[in-house]
């Protein structure tokens, strides 16, 4: 199957499922795609279990087998999705919440990793499925960061108070760098053994996070200066595409954080660039182009999340352990949010009900699944992959569909 055929299959299926959702299911577009794709996948698995010779899922499994989910998302789609998301974030509003965002994205992620990892280790032992503590921490590291793609997609359909929206969007955009560094360190310890040195961790953090920030600033400024003397909308769209693709490719080569570079470049161009470097006509072109690209890629990504069960189910799908891991993931998230809120409440006020909304609205998504799929093959990988997938599905479907109701209940109306 050629690359064009795979793309045609995914876009065609996204359009079909999107139409079904629009006419009959009528939930937010991305959540609807996950729901319908998951339902279709489970139906195919049921038919296969009843009639093994039918091979009804052959085409989808072949397509999914040709797609490296981790490579496709982390080294491709994510660059465009993060840039498009950051392009529409108000930098001044982000600065007004920098203490909360910074604390939740760093210390909050580390605390959540430890809490979730410890509780998962205890739960696995109690359930008769013991895993080493370091591998439980691997799960804690990949599930702790909120997914900016899922969070930003949710905000397009859910009315969220501005202060909470800025806090949650800012945290989700920046905590990937910390999460990936922690994940990389813990996986290295789990695979190679030994104790990680603080010097090594600091070096990784500096290269990943600080390197990503510097690259993002350079790329954003280069794009800004290039567009400053232009009034050619099509060319300016092409320039922003070049900024994204070249900067992300360089970040991968230099082992810096590509996601953070995209966020910084997107914030730079979306604020300073949109204000000073482009005309009204060009601004309209840029916003519409990136909104459309964001919608298309989001549709394909959430479709893949729903279909991925066809692959995961073949590697030992322990859904019951995933169900038990859901309250653990939520507890770790709640504790990190609560302590961060307490630490900064003297300087940055948030409305009543902020803790439950930030906890329930901190969705996990494709990034967690991609990290789990990147784990080396061993006896613990199927367990981690299973519980990650169940937690992600619960987060997108249940939390995504009920967060509006929660906001109405716990946040006072103005």
Write the layout of secondary structure elements.
Blueprint: H1 3-25, H2 29-50, H3 58-66, H4 69-86, H5 91-95, H6 98-105, H7 107-126, H8 133-143, H9 148-155, H10 162-192, H11 198-228, H12 233-254, H13 258-277, H14 280-307, H15 309-312, H16 319-344, H17 354-360, H18 366-373, H19 381-410
Helix pairs in contact: 1-2, 1-14, 2-14, 2-19, 4-12, 4-13, 4-14, 4-18, 6-10, 6-16, 7-8, 7-16, 8-10, 8-19, 9-10, 10-11, 11-12, 11-13, 12-13, 12-14, 16-17, 16-19, 17-19, 18-19
What does this structure look like?
- The protein has 414 residues and is mostly helical.
- It has a single domain, classed as Na+/H+ antiporter like fold.
- It is 80% helix and 0% strand.
- The longest helix is centred in the middle third of the chain and has 31 residues, at 162-192.
- The relative contact order is 0.16.
